[in-house]
Design a protein that fits this description.
69 residues
């Protein structure tokens, strides 16, 4: 479900109004959870890239310092 799709839909006549508000609240929470998950995945991807770059830098520095000049 996309966040744009998270809208309040009128409840059928046999459902109380509280069920409608709860359903809308759950949809909003799911939308916020999906957005937060995407943010965390993006941050995780960025941090993994940073760690990989630093590991390469460390390996290169170790290689340079281990040579006999």
């Amino acid at each position: 479900m996309r966040c744009a799709d998270a809208r309040v839909v009128p409840a059928p006549r046999h459902q109380p109004a509280d069920a409608l508000s709860l359903e809308g609240e759950v949809r909003r929470d799911e939308c916020l959870d999906a957005q937060r998950l995407k943010q965390l995945e993006d941050e995780n991807r960025r941090l993994k890239k940073l760690v990989a770059e630093q590991a390469l830098d460390i390996a290169a520095l170790k290689d340079v310092t281990s040579r006999n000049w």
